[in-house]
User: Fold these one by one.
Assistant:
Number 1:
Amino acid sequence: MRLSSYSPISQVISPALHPSVRSKGKRCIDIVGALLGLSITAILFLPIVFAIRLDSSGPIFYTQRRCGLKGKQFKIWKFRSMVTNAEQLKHMVENEADGHIFKNRNDPRITRVGQFLRKTSLDELPQFFNVLKGDMSLVGTRPPTSDEVENYSSYHLQRLNVKPGITGEWQVYGRSNVEKFDEIVRMDLNYQRKWSVHYDLLLILRTIVVVLGKQGAY
C-alpha cells in the first residue's frame, strides 16, 4: 500500500471526524501552546545549534515524512540527534521493539549531543511549528512513518482518526519504555475514547512532570 499526500486510506479508517478534530477549544490550546513552545525554542535555539555543530557535521534539523489525520502525510521537524546517514545505517541496528515501530536503547547512530537532546526531549521543540500549522496537536497519537502505516491492520489504522501529537498517553504512561506496538495502539485508542479538552490539559501537565523528571527517555 503506497501512501500519497492524502491517502485513500482515509476512506478505510472512519468516515466521521473524531470530536477532537472539530474542537475549537483544543485548537486554541494548540495555538497558545505552540506559540509558547516556539518562544522557548527561540531562547534555546543558539545553544542547541552550537552544541549540534560542535558534536557532528550536518544539518541542524531532521525532517521526515509522517502520517497524520486520516493518513495525510506531512513533514515533521526535529533537532537532529543522529548522524546524517542514519537512515542508510538503520539496517545495521537491531530493532528491540515488537511490532510496527523501531527502537533500540543503545542505538549507535545517536550522537553524544543527540542523547542529551532526546533525554530532555529538546529534540522535539521544532514540532511546535507542526502544531501551529495544524498538522499536529499538542496532545494526540504518536505520528507514524509511511512504511509503518503500510503494514497496519484495520485495527491499527484506527489510531489515525485523530491528529498526531507531541505528547499523548504513550508519553505520559510509558514513553520509550513501551516497546510493544500493540500497547501503543491500545493507549492511542484509549485516548480517543477518553478525549476531552480537560483530559488534554491533564496530559500536558503530566507530560511536563515526566519530561522534567527525564522519565523513560532514551
Number 2:
Amino acid sequence: MSKWLNILLIFIPLALFVEFTHGNGTLIFAASALSIVPLAGLMSRATEQLAHRLGSTVGGLLNATFGNATELIIAFLALSAGKIEVVKASIVGSILGNLLLVLGVSLLLGGFRFKEQRFSVKIAGTIASLLTISVLALLIPTIFGVTARNVDPARVVGLDRQLSDAAAVALILLYVGYLIFTLRTHSDRLASVDEADGNADGHSPQWSLPLAAGALLVATVAVGFMSELLVGSIDAATSSLGLSEFFVGLILLPVIGNAAEMAAAVTFALKNRMELTITIALGASVQIALLVAPLLVLAGVVLGKPLDLVVTPLELVAVSGAVLVVNSVVRDGETNWLEGLMLLAVYVILAFAVFFFPVK
C-alpha cells in the first residue's frame, strides 16, 4: 500500500509550481494536501528503520517523537498563522480520525478476509484506559468553561487559558510516565507486539543508518514546507469550496495527517496482526491527547497566540462517544467487519454534522 501512496509524490512539484506562479489557491491546497500523505509515510518508514538500528528503547522514543509529527507540524503552522479554531478542531479531529476512521477501516477490511480477528486484551486494555483518562483531561476545560460562565462570565476566557496551560503540563508529565511504563518498567506488556513485528514479513533493517536518518530529515523538512503551503491556502480553499474552517480542521486535516497510520493499520489488519493495528490506532490517539495537544498549548504561549482546550459541545459529545464505542469494541479481545462498519458509520454521521454545522 505504501508503494501506491508514493505515486502521490508527483503532487510536490505541482504544488510548488502553482505556488511560485501564484496560481489557484484551491489547487495549491489540494496538491499540498495530497503530497503530505506519502511524505508522512516516508517519515514513518524512516523512523521504523532507525528503530531497528538503534534498539528498542531509542526506537520507542523515536516512534513516540515522530509518530504524529505530521499532525504537529500542520497544527503548529496553523497556530503560527493565527488559525486558532482550525488548530483546536484538528486536535479533536485527529483523535476521532484514529479511533473511528483508521480503526474502522482496518476492522472492516480485515474482517472481510478473516471471520474473527483476535488480539491481546491486556495490550488493548492498557491503551484504551489511558485514552479514556487522557481524553477526559482534555475535556475538563470545556466542562469548566461552560459551568464557570454561570459564576463569573467576565473572567471565563482568562481562566480557560490558565486551566489549559496547567492541563498541558499535567498531560506532558503523564506522557512521560506513559513512556517510562511502556519502554522500561512494563515493557513486557508489549512483548507480543514486538515479537510479531520482528518475526513477520522480514522486518529487519533494510536501510543503513545514514540513509534512514537522511530520509527522516528530508521528509520532515518537506512536510513542513508542504504544510506551510497547505495552511496558507486554507482561506482560498474554504471560500471556493464552500467549506468552513471547522470542517477543514476537524475532518480534512486529520484525514491527511492520519493517512500513514491508516495505511499501516490496514496492512497489519489484512495480515491478521490485530495487536499492531489496535496499537497504531489507539496509540496515535493517546499521543495526540498527551503530547501534541499540550505542546500546541505551550507553543501558543510562546508565540503569543493563546490556545485553550475548550471545544464545542458537538466535539465534546463526539470524542466521549468515540471513546466509549472503541472501549466496547476492544474489551473482548476480538473483532469482526460489522464492528468496523459501526465505527465508520459514526464517523460519517459526524462528518455530515460538521459539514452542516453553522459557523460565525
